[in-house]
Amino acid sequence: MTEVQSINENPCENLLDNLLIRGAAAVMTGQAGPAARAGAADIRIRDGRIAEIAVGLAPLPGERVLDATGCVVYPGWINTHHHLFQNLLKAVPAGINADLQAWLAAVPYPRLAAFTPEVLRAAVRLGMAELLLAGTTTCADHHYLYHHGHGAETGDLLFDVAEEMGLRLVLCRGGAIQSAADHPGMSKTALVPETLDEMVADIERLKARYHDPAGDAMRRVAVAPTTPTFSLPPAMLRELAEFGRGLGLRLHTHLSETDNYVRFCREKYRCTPVEFVGEHGWLGPDVWFAHLVTLSPDEIRMLAATGTGMAHCPVSNARLGSGVAPVRALADAGVRISLGVDGVASNESGSMVNEANFAWLVHRAVGGAAQTTVEEVIHWGTAGGAAVLDLPRIGTLAPGQSADLAIYDLKGLRFHGFHDLAAAPVAAGEPTPVRHVFVRGRQVVQDGAIVGLDLEQLRREAYDAMQVLQRIAA
Question: The dihedral of CA 14, 17, 23, 28: what is its sign?
């Protein structure tokens, strides 16, 4: 008789080289088209990779078994645009009803100097925990807490916390070089922007220490000035792109987030934002932009022709009144689409399930029911993210792929009556409780709790850090 060991009998064991996930009601693969659904299949994991997906797999000798009855399995979500430091800035009263420019001036910028390493660490731990507990396994964090003479160690802090949590991290090393007076909202801070030499030196250091080119790398670095039209002089934009490409790094930034952004670009540079970045070397298959809310048909064609990608952040765009990005037109043109939750100071939810649910709904509300499907939104948030970040070994559930997956528990009352359980997390949105999460075959969430995390300690750290930020506001 085959000896079968339940995973639940070994709560301290979270690196599972031989695991069989059995009994799931449905498996969504993250792939496009008919391959999006694998049905009620079982999943075998070997050495951190998916070895087999099929219906009715029998346990092998010595293989641990995870009972997924009443659950659905998704690929781990890939969040391609975030600001983790903002996890302690949710619902700040001065910015709750503001548009982007007023929100920047009222919420993040006045508090940038308050983010000591202790405060930042509390915010990052809180943010990563929130992501994991909604099934996110990869996060690209657009981190811009850098100024002259300070901040170089903050990228290291993010990598340290990601390793502690078991989350895959792409550090999008941001920052501004322009003078404070030239940057919207910066009048509320006395911080001095860093120099190009400081930015470049730190990117080189981060690349040498952390960047892994592997297709399922746990650590990556990208070049990511905060915004191309405000954060640095145009001549430096091309120089920074050439520098990043010389190191083999991808390029990321915000673009065309609002009508005001487009208006500014037309008035100052006599062109559209996409034309502007194109003139300065910031289009191509190694580039992805966050937001892209306001675009002309010609700009959409430029993005598609150059293979440039997109991080779609629909909740933040709606929260700030920025508009609804033309994602249907972008996707139909061939632009690579991914999802990002953006900073939770302009979202209030660090959940990719919430983001996927809203993405599914908002485009149908604007353009009709044919605009989005559940399968397509899952594809954007998983395989789409992998394509944008150039991580081809993640994002889909298939043999040979990294075992990054989220198992959602659908036994709760709100899921009774679902005829299509596979669609439930996206169609129902939050709360959709995650039972287990795996990254590269390592179990990082077990029975709804992050492995090794002292939740009460995290709450105390977050509370203490909030007191610091509230004193700044006062």
Answer: positive
